[in-house]
Structures are given as C-alpha cells and as structure tokens.
Specification:
Blueprint: H1 10-13, E1 21-25, E2 28-32, H2 42-56, H3 59-70, E3 78-84, E4 87-92, H4 96-103, H5 105-114, E5 121-126, H6 132-145, H7 151-154, E6 156-158, E7 165-167, H8 168-174, H9 178-185
Parallel strand pairs: 4-5
Antiparallel strand pairs: 1-2, 3-4, 6-7
Helix pairs in contact: 2-3
Length: 194
C-alpha cells in the first residue's frame, strides 16, 4: 500500500531558507519572507565573486590576474581593455611596449588560457595607460614643487615693502610678499617701502 503524502507544516518550511515562510495565527495565514542565509566571511564572499568572474569570463577577473599573467615587465605598460566573445583587446603604451606586446602575443595568449580564461584571440592597440587625472596630479605636483610660496624650498626673509617675514620665492617673483602683491592686484596704492 502506498504511504499517504505528508503535508508540509510551517515547521518543515523553516528548514528551507529559500522558500517563503507561512505562519498561521488563528484563522489567518501570513506569508513571511524567506529566511536569510547565514552570514559568511568577507574573504569567502570575495573568493566566490572571483570564481564567478572567472567562470563567466568577466574582464574584472582578468584585471585582477593581469600582473601574474602578463609578467612584471609587461604588465605595468599594458592592460586588458575589452573581452567580448573570446576576443581580448589589450592596450599598450606607445613605442617599445606595444612592440613588446606584439612579439609576446603567443606567450600571452598561452598564459591567458593556462590561467583558465577562454580567450580565442588577441587584438592589440595603442593605449595611453596614464589617465588624464594622473597626468593632472603629476602636473600639480610639479607646480607645487617649484611654487614660490614654499618656504621649505626657497627659505624665508623679510619683505622689502612691508617688513613682514615671507618666502624668498615670492619676493624673487614679484619683488615683495604675497600680502603686498594682493594689495597691488586689488588696485590699492603700491606697497609701502620699509
């Protein structure tokens, strides 16, 4: 004889964290959201995300593995730009780095496949790896390194116009300190001579 099917009770459904939970209160039946899965460590979450990226052929996984795949000499001067349908576009700095990437094309393709990436071919193109923001910050650093108001670079002396201590770089540039310069630019009388 066949055994009668047992009806799932609300206690049984609590064992399945993916199913919505039902709870009876008198004649009412309430539908509660499914139970949350237990918390996992951040390291486990990140490792799972990396495995998922690799499985899906995501460009983010390739960026993460790029220094290991391209090697210490080539990796800083080139980067993966696009991965679409097995075709990887790699950009390299102009000049010898693009040429080095062309010469090492087959080794790079082998390293990519050996690392588990499904890349059928490489497309190489010239790419300026330094972003505009980085260039701006470098230019800003150079300007600040030689700025006339830096007393740690140029030293300190008394302004010939007002007698206040001021960086020597300001006086070399304008003939007086920045306070006197501000008065001149505001249209006030020329700075007083001390």
């Amino acid at each position: 004889m066949a055994e009668p099917r047992r009806r799932r009770s609300s206690r049984d459904s609590s064992r399945d964290p993916g199913r919505p939970q039902a709870r009876r209160i008198g004649t009412l039946s309430l539908l509660l959201p499914p139970l949350r899965p237990p918390a996992s460590a951040v390291g486990q979450c990140l490792a799972g995300l990396a495995r998922e990226w690799e499985r899906e052929g995501n460009l983010a996984a390739l960026w993460q593995a790029w220094p290991r795949i391209a090697g210490p000499q080539l990796a800083p001067h080139c980067r993966p730009l696009q991965l679409q349908a097995g075709l990887l576009t790699v950009g390299a700095a102009p000049g010898p780095w693009l040429q080095a990437l062309q010469y090492n094309r087959h080794q790079l393709l082998g390293a990519l496949r050996g690392a588990g990436f499904t890349v059928r071919d490489l497309r190489l193109r010239q790419h300026h790896a330094i972003a505009a923001a980085e260039l701006a910050s470098q230019a800003e650093e150079q300007v600040w390194a030689a700025h006339p108001s830096r007393r740690d670079v140029h030293g300190l002396a008394d302004c010939p116009a007002c007698g206040r201590p001021a960086p020597i770089g300001e006086m070399a540039r304008w003939g007086h300190c920045s306070f006197c310069r501000r008065e001149v630019l505001a249209g006030a009388a020329p700075p007083p001579q001390a």
